[in-house]
Amino acid sequence: MADNTHADVKRLTFERAIEELESIVKRLEEGKVPLEESVTIYERGEALKRRCDELLKQAEARVEKITLDSAGKPTGTEPLDAGG
To answer: What residues does 6 pair with on adjacent strands?
Structure first.
C-alpha cells in the first residue's frame, strides 16, 4: 500500500499536493483521528511535503532573472541566484 501511495504522490501537481497536505494538517490538528489513521495520514503528509519541495526546486531551477543594461532595457537572462 505504501508503494501505491508514494507513486500516487509523485504524479500530483504542486497545487493538488499542497491542498491535500493542508487537509491532513487540519485533520491532525483537530485531534479526532484514531491513532493508527493519524500515523498513516502523517506519513502521507511527509510524502506530500517532499513532493512539494521537489516541485518547488524544479521551478526554481527554471526561473531566470532578466538582466538589464544601464538604460534599463532588457539584455538577456541569467540563472536566478537561489542563494539570495
So the answer is: none
pTM over 0.85? The answer is no
Cβ atoms of 52 and 15 within 8 Å: the answer is no
73 within some domain: yes
Count how many domains the chain has. 1
Which amino acid is residue 5, in one-letter code? Answer: T
Element (H or E) spanning 48, and its range? Answer: helix 35-62
Sequence-ordered strand ranges (E) for 1-84: 64-68, 74-79
What does the pLDDT read at residue 6?
59
Asked if residue 26 belongs to a domain, the reply is: yes
Q: Residue 26, Cβ neighbours under 10 Å: how many?
A: 9
Range of the domain at 59: 2-79
Question: What pLDDT, in 10s, does the model give residues 45-73?
Answer: 999 999 999 999 988 877 777 777 888 78
DSSP state of 1: -
